[in-house]
Structure formats: structure tokens, C-alpha cells
Amino acid sequence: MRIVLLGAPGAGKGTVAKQLTGYDGSVQISTGDILRNAVKAGTELGKTAKGFMERGELVPDQLIMDIMEARLKDPDCQKGFLLDGFPRTIPQAEALKKLLAKLNIKLDRVINLDVPKDVILDRLTTRRTCSNVDCQEIYNIKSKPPTPDGKCIKCGSPAVQRADETEEAITKRLETYNEKTSPLINFYEKEGLLKSISSLSSEEIVAQVKAAIG
What we know:
There is one protein chain. This protein has 214 residues and is an alpha/beta fold. It has helices at 13-24, 31-41, 44-54, 61-72, 90-102, 117-125, 167-180, 183-190, 202-213, and strands spanning 2-7, 27-29, 81-84, 109-113, 127-130, 138-140, 159-160, 194-197. β5 and β6 (138-140) form a beta hairpin. The relative contact order is 0.18.
């Protein structure tokens, strides 16, 4: 399958993407991952991206698209891919459309995960992340708690609340999403590719995605 997953922070894109990779061997791709991997691999594109990241600047869209092109050409993408949280803006969506046409790749679907704000706030404010950069296991103090003393079950490092997962920070992130990313829903609706799913169950969402791509 070749799909784009849209949805606000905390909508469950990563969870759904991970479950779908086991369905047909499609690979999960997020811009954060490909940027970090390009930097780690020391590619020319990665070195350029590293400069922006170290200065705390946004990586330009064109550089992101160049890195995305290189990633989509990797052999493991032949079975399919799940773009997790990309594109984020209309210009990125238009650039992606041109890139896919250039590579002769056709999107199967764009899945929009429609989750109420109160659910997102509850999910993210109760999320904890392992502070060990080599682990980064995700926990939830309600549904998947760390150890009673707040440690990662896998490696024993402290499981902490990220600075961008306080209620104030999440509200700001949702405002940014609604301003910049939600217009993508209309963009892909006009392209005839959009399917919105409002279920809160990742298993139900995965079933609906499978049905949507036939």
C-alpha cells in the first residue's frame, strides 16, 4: 500500500502505521526519521540538513523533498510506504504530488484520523517517554504505565513527560496543526484520495484502511 496518514498530534498515526507495516511489508516513513537517518549516515543531504537542525532552523521544504526522494528510491519502499505526518502543508503536498509523478508512483489513499481534541489532550498529557535516546519507549500512565517509580521497563532509564506534551504546549501544537495542516484535508478531498476515519480503536482504523484500499 502507498498511503499518507493525516491527523493531529496524538491522533495515533504512528501506532496505526506500525500495525499496517505488518500487513503487507510497507515501510513507515516520517520526516523526522528520514532527516535523522540522513544526518546519521553522513550523506551530503544529511550534512546540509544537520546545519539547519543544529542552528534550530526549519529544514527547507526543497531539502526535505530531496531527502524524501532518496528515501522513496530505497529498495524497501518497493512493497509500499506509509507517510506518517507528511506532508504538513499545502506546498509540501504539491511538491509530493510532483515527486510521486516523477517517480511514477501512485498514492492508494490519504487517511485522515479524526480524533476529538479532548481525547488528544488526554492521550498526550498522560504520555511518558523513556529518556534514553537509544530506547525512547513510549508509555501512558493510564493504559501502559512505566514502573511504579517512573522508570522504563525496557532499559531502566527515567520515563519523562516531554516539554511539548504539557496541556499548554499541546494546545499550541493543535492550533498550529489546524492552521497549517488541516487544509490538506480539502486538498486531498479534491484529489479524490481522502478517507476520514473517526474511530478511536487502532484495530478498527487498520481494518477500515485495509477495506479502503481494497
